[in-house]
Amino acid sequence: MLPDEFATSQRLGKDEVSMLASKYGTPLFVFFEEELRRRVRMVREAFKWFSKGVSVAYSIKANFNPSILKVFISEGCHFDITSLGELYFYLRSGGDGGKVIYTSVSEEREELLEALRKGVRRFVVSSSNGLKNLRLAIEESGARPEVLLRVNPEVDVKASVKASHKFGALLEMEGEESAGRMIGLMRDWGLDFSGFHFHLGSQITDPSCFREALRKLASFSRDAGLDGFRVMDVGGGLPVFYDEKVPSLEDFSEAIREGFEPMVDEFGVEELVVESGRYLSAYAGSLITKVVNLKRERGKKLVFLDAGYHILLDAVLLDQAYPQYSFTEGGEEEIELFGKLCDSSDFFPISPASRLKGLEIGDYVVFENVGAYSLVFSLPFHCYPKPPVVMKTGDGEYRLIRKGEGLEELFEEEGGLL
């Protein structure tokens, strides 16, 4: 029995795979517009207990394809953006700067000034130097944006990727990089301190860390003598099913509710922001690949695909086992999946949810839940160009949303005509 999350995202039948592969070739990424929309609505539904409404923010770093951004824009999402490049893609896709939560890591003055000039009106600061640079940019631009302070609650987090201590001010009153000192500077400088932001990690498997982080933040706010603040941004971390069962969206909602609701009355919080890149985009993506070679040894069938970790980098970075399936039957041999790169690390872990039997050369293997951190991590290893991407639209039509890159284009991109 397949886990529910995998079953709901498996949308390509044998005839569709054959048709798409014949038309566009393989490897081929396929996205589903309705799944993108469904995930946004699921998050809103899970947090409907907050009567003032939750703001769902899409973290653009997970997938910045313009067609995907346009779907989230049409759903009224906010956008977590961390670079001027991401801001360019968002605005060129029809986005509104007023929907941006700008969270720079380098926090350079010229970068922040350019974001202000582009209409961004909400910034997250994470360091005292970044706060100084934002103040200078605000003075030069004449704008008056909201400022959220990113904090590091220092709670125990069970996750595949934990947020590093490089991010956020500590919940202390003293010290150059302390939250207390930075809030004091915002007040002294007349900045619009609007609230807090934190991000605990990616693929979080125990929701209780959100409850603990919010309670620690409430305790700090009392000690700091805060009269109130408007915005609480709890970041992302909502997990996606790959090879292990993960807590439900409702589990996270309840943990956040337990920590957040007391803050609403005590500090007058008006807006709850829930960010997600992976959860909103992962389930909407599939990858069609073809078996191009195989060999048998010691009772195993070694299957080679026409893809590699150059287009699914998390398979090697995080040992991520994407659910896979094929349309073949029979054969009890143990299967190992390999890519076509000349690198010993180029193999694909197999999820317990995968259905792979009897594979032969020419058969198709479909990877599921690949919509996050796949297109953005594409590498031209071995001079392999980027594969095409199509989207199944809400009206059931397939539309090309990124052309496959040609070798001549890659040659030119790498300076071959200079």
Concise synopsis of the structure shown:
This protein has 418 residues and is α/β, with parallel strands linked by helices. It has helices at 4-9, 14-24, 33-46, 66-74, 84-92, 109-117, 128-141, 179-188, 208-223, 249-267, 278-281, 314-317, 407-413, and strands spanning 28-32, 54-59, 78-81, 100-102, 122-125, 146-152, 159-162, 169-170, 192-197, 201-204, 231-233, 271-276, 285-297, 300-305, 324-326, 334-338, 347-348, 364-368, 389-392, 398-402. The chain has 13 helices and 20 strands.
In words, what does this structure look like?
A hairpin with an 8-residue loop joins strand 16 and strand 17. This protein has 418 residues and is α/β, with parallel strands linked by helices. The model has no long low-confidence stretch (mean pLDDT 95). The protein has 13 helices and 20 strands. Helix 9 runs parallel beside helix 10. The longest helix is centred in the middle third of the chain and has 19 residues, at 249-267. The chain is globular. Strands 1, 13, 14, 15, 16, 17, 18, 19 and 20 form a 9-stranded mixed beta sheet that branches. Strands 2, 3, 4, 5, 6, 8, 9, 11 and 12 form a 9-stranded parallel beta sheet that branches. Strands 7-10 form a two-stranded antiparallel ribbon. It folds into 2 domains: 4-30 and 282-413, Beta Barrel (Lyase, Ornithine Decarboxylase, Chain A, domain 1), CATH 2.40.37.10; 33-280, Alpha-Beta Barrel (TIM Barrel).
